[in-house]
Amino acid sequence: MAYLIWDIKGENLRTQLDYDPRVEDPAYETHSKVFVGDIDPETDLLCCYKLNAAGDGVENPHAGKTKQEMHDLHEVERKIKDATHLKASKLIEIKTTAANKLADEYSTTGWRHEKASETDLLNGNNVEMTKLANEKKAIRDANNAHETALKAIDPSTESGADAVIAFDPTTY
Amino acid sequence: MGRRITEKAVTSSGGGIDHNDPFEQPCFTSYTGQYNHTTGFFTWDHNLNTHNWIMGDTQQASSYRSDNSSYSTEFIQTQGSSQWFNTQSNPGGSTDRPNLCSYTGYLGHSCFQNASRTGGATSWFVYSPGSDRRSYGFRDVGTLPGETHQDYAIYCQFGGQFRVGQRSPTEYFMGVNYGYMPTVDIPDGWTSQMYGGVSYNRKKNFLLFMETDDGYTYQPWLWKNCPNLRAIANKGSDFHYDKAERYDNYNMTSESSLYQDFFAQTSNRQTGGQTNNGYYATCGTFNGKPTNGSTEDRQRCIPVICDNERVIMFQQITNYGAWCGRWNSPTVDGNGNFAGSQKNFSGTTTYGIDQGHRFGARFTQTSDGRYIAMYSPYYHYGAGSHMTIVRVSDGKTLHSQWQTSGDTAIPVPYGKSNFLIATSRNSYGGSGVRFSVFFCDWRFANRNNNSDPDMFGGMDMSEYSYDTTYHTTSYPAIIPAIYNTAVFNEGNQKTDSSAGDFAPTST
Question: Are B88 and A169 an interchain contact pair (Cβ–Cβ within 8 Å)?
Fold first, then answer.
């Protein structure tokens, strides 16, 4: 008989022990749930296990499959979970990339702005500033198009997850 | 209970006092960052107080972490969009993340330069080809059981190219790649020496090489009365250091001091195969050692030669898990027989040196060298962990696993005799860096040999206390510090017997 240790914060089955850790550490259940059971690591993967609906045990949704099959199914699940987080992160990244482009060369204290405004002053028109504004608009438009492209990808499928992971938020 | 502050007059540079509390040295650094977001490093000392920190904000012109063409440092600008230094995914998600457990070890972290202990500077990343170069050292470095002065390293390649040098993977790259570092070819006892398959117990003057037939069978070969390798390393890795200078060259194979005086005399090699009084037994699949057809477990291992001449061997078995075995002493508790598998970690797909020399099992050791922790990932590139800690005095081992496809944890030398178990767990929501302390003496005293002390339990004890630099989901890279281990030992702490203060062994 083994004791299966569920990591509460990490939401995964961390390990199995041949003793009950709660005996020595009464506070053990503040960070880990302990269930009784046996898992054969030669034929089963701890990383596949999930907490059951009642929260009073763990179960492997891929039970009965080979270890390699479990691994492959788990890898897809892991990838989708990862891609879902990445999609939100990359949407932020697209915006900050545009902000950086605008703040770097195109800021009001940058050399482009200074040169354009002074050229217009000398020429008595606003040709250069208009050109500058159009360049900045092009950056914002590209930002919007890039955001739209990422939002259109559904990370809940394996192919969608792969597309999100491969998506470069900084190149547009 | 305080610690003595040593005061040493500095005379050669005009006077002054050097205050040196070993616990005020850096212990580890966390790095978090993503693309051009706020990024930086926090470093803590062995009191778990803040040692130093540096961070940047991309919205500020002074930012160091930025894609801004005008303000970035050279590495940052080039790496600004690199996957290598993004911590937005956990170690199960990509090969190119700084938070993989296989990027850490005795030499620090392959993706970051180590900080100087005296200057208050923090670690700093290297460009990705640089981390690849540094990884050769992580692949080949050997253990130094019992060593209190850990300012050097020993290395062994498959086939027996042996080197000693400073504790620097950059210096080692000079040798392994360019051939510009003194090298000795170790005479074969049986077959071939292994990557990282060397262990130097300076307290006993033992030097042990693990040999393999390149077919999953292994045998330890022990050399006794070994020269002081630390002295050779600190003198500049010169094997001729005690020879007279002359205009004609020394012949490395016939006149080299270390080679001729030690390795060339096979009488120093206490084992002589299966007929002599040595570690005569081989170990392999016939002893139950698992294998999965990889170079990692065919040509690479981490051995530890203990004070009582027991030999502990740890291997990552790629695409399977990890394994730990033991040989008994030829003289103390047996006839050098193989004592069998101590632990068989059955896991799943993992990367080893077949996938690149930046992958594979790693080790580190406590400041006093009394405990050595060996570990490898459970899942793919560097997630989860299989870990064995060995007590050098007698070869007692404890083993734990964290079988996850998400995060990882690494052992970080902490104080005199302990490890931190520091994780890559998400720092989101103010959780910050999460770690626990593994008190080696206590845990080894209260556990049987080969039992599981649940090393990865309680990893959230530090939650909400140790900040990171990124504002949302981020999985920190943990960078173990390189510091002066010697000052943690006798003569530098108030609790030393010689200091007349509390001594655990006195009445």
Answer: no
pLDDT value of position B273: 53
Chain A residues in contact with chain B using a Cβ-Cβ cutoff of 8 Å: 5, 7, 9-10, 12-15, 17-18, 21, 28, 31-32, 41-42, 45-47, 67, 71, 74-75, 78-79, 82, 85-86, 88-89, 92-93, 96-97, 99-100, 103-105, 165, 168-171
Q: What angle do CA B91, B93, B96 make, to 5 degrees?
A: 70
Q: State the total domains in chain B.
A: 1
- State whether ipTM is beyond 0.95: no
> Cα separation of A17 and B454, whole Å?
8
CA A122 to chain centroid: 51
Nearest chain A residue to B349 by CA distance is A71
Chain A contact set for B34 (CB, 8 A): 89, 93
Listing DSSP states for A8-53 in one string gives: TTTTEEEEEESS-TTTT-TTGGGTEEEEEE---TTT--GGG-EE-T
CB atoms within 10 A of CB A58: 20
B402: nearest CB among A15, A86, A96? A15
Q: Give one word for B260, left, alpha or beta, with left for phi > 0 and alpha for psi -120 to 50.
A: alpha
C-alpha distance from A130 to closest chain B C-alpha (Å): 24
Judge whether B294 lies within some domain: yes
Model pLDDT, residue A106: 87
Interface check B476 vs A, CB under 8 A:
no
As a whole number of angstroms, the distance between CA B123 and CA B480 comes to 10
Write down the pLDDT at residue B256: 72
Looking at chain B, the whole-number percentage of residues with pLDDT higher than 70 is 83
Range of the domain at B453: 26-483
Q: Is residue B145 part of a domain?
A: yes
Indicate the range of A85-99, B5-19, B413-427 predicted with least confidence.
B5-19
Residue B225 has pLDDT above 90, yes or no: no
